[in-house]
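2024-03-11 09:14:02 INFO receiving multi-entity request
2024-03-11 09:14:02 INFO entity count = two
2024-03-11 09:14:03 INFO echoing inputs for audit
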Amino acid sequence: MIDKLVEQIQEKNAPVVVGLDPMLSYVPEEIQKKSFAEYGETLEGAADAIWQFNKGIIDAVYDLVPAVKPQIAMYEQYGVPGMAAFEKTVSYCKKQGLLVIGDIKRGDIGSTSAAYAVAHLGKVQVGSKVYEPFGEDFATVNPYLGTDGIEPFLKVCRENDKGIFVLVKTSNPSSGELQDKEVEGSTVYEHVADKVRAWGQTCMGTVYSNVGAVVGATYPEVGKVLRKAMPQSFLLVPGYGAQGGKAEDLAAYFNPDGQGAIINSSRGIICAYTKEAYKQFGPEHYADASRQAVLDMVEDINKYRPKA
Amino acid sequence: MIDKLVEQIQEKNAPVVVGLDPMLSYVPEEIQKKSFAEYGETLEGAADAIWQFNKGIIDAVYDLVPAVKPQIAMYEQYGVPGMAAFEKTVSYCKKQGLLVIGDIKRGDIGSTSAAYAVAHLGKVQVGSKVYEPFGEDFATVNPYLGTDGIEPFLKVCRENDKGIFVLVKTSNPSSGELQDKEVEGSTVYEHVADKVRAWGQTCMGTVYSNVGAVVGATYPEVGKVLRKAMPQSFLLVPGYGAQGGKAEDLAAYFNPDGQGAIINSSRGIICAYTKEAYKQFGPEHYADASRQAVLDMVEDINKYRPKA
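2024-03-11 09:21:47 INFO inference complete, emitting structure
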């Protein structure tokens, strides 16, 4: 699956992923009203509103970017109907030719991780039939439980040609509390990076591994270190834009050939119509605002990205 | 909420939680057949089968134990219908007077953790209405992202009188890879325990905090250390039975008054009818086998538990 991501990035010349992390409050009022008229002010109504919102954005950007990254928490907060909206979003994105990175940050003991891996990247047997429950192409995974919590994901990745991104250094302010701690002469995040490299060897694509790493845009010095520590791991980089990461700092997240990283923006894209820079589009053209924000972001990232 | 757990444990004299972690393969064939007859061999059929299976067990044990712990991964693997079965299970358990610990092991950056907290312990606003999406009483939480990933859970716990259990030392074989690493003269798990104690201070019940810790039964030496490190944190202890934890080793997980810990068993209870010791019940009386397994487990744990 990582080969497809590399190919799509090259084809679209855009190492950019759009984070589909909708809150009801991001959805233009007209869309909310329509959904509430059909389903009432219910979880179904909320789920329909975020799905309609997503659909508009997907239709406006699918030709510009290789992938989207729906954050499952944003759907989970609307309960079962929210999960249905997540599934619908994943499936529609795939139909539109986008790769889907499920930002699920799951991770548990072996038998439980196996169930998560099946849920998001694999297939489940029901009697004589087989189903793909949520059907993402990639998933983010938490490493706190160690190798036996990761291995079931690797197995499912190998069997179904899928990929994972393991949390190594996250973009949030207190990520350092645990991740930066010194361990045996290096740091926790470097220690996890070593594991990612080892796990990655068991699940290689052509150049990159199907085991990538999440490395926040907000710690560029760490990004530089981790790029070198995991040369064959693709970096999924959150934190650009709303969280403060800058394109000039992101050059070091790429390999010298300009490959090896994909930068995420969520609110910066999906809420573009609420920002000063794109206000002229107005809420009724929110999707066009998102499209323009993607174009601007791609230009910004490519300006500093190493040339092949 | 922790006060209610303490009270329920005392009332039922059972520091035991039943892990509702159903796989379709655990469900007696007759139940599967009935669900497939109604819904076909579909995700809906699988979800109905695990829900019927759960219901039988809940009805057979609800008077014996204070709480259940459904593992959400087991439901997630059956997609959206599986999530509906999770929600139905949570809601039915609460109706039967059981406390529900959602074993969800979520954790993310602040704004995303807030969405998870709302999903599982809080309420979500939809227009003028308010809903409880999944409605558990407690949730397990992953600490890899640090304080700002935990704080939204604390906030929701304070607002809604709910609780969390933070992963400190998990029960699986490779938990030590990261959790046992030496950090500033102690270990990663002790470092996380310090955080749990600090977070717990902001969310106290009468004696114990609403911020507890997950500490695996499979590492009794660590359990002893962590019991002392977090005297006011309730320990949620997985790994008894199927994973190898023994009752005699669990004495040290309790405080001297016999309180402060709750021991989980999942497969040992819900799959009891498949074990040699309970085979005589037969698949048609699987729930009675589970009841007997609970009675035996409570006796086993209480034999070694410190007396008040």
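2024-03-11 09:21:48 INFO post-check: Chain A is about 45% helix and 15% strand.
2024-03-11 09:21:48 INFO post-check: The first strand of chain A starts at residue 16 and ends at 18.
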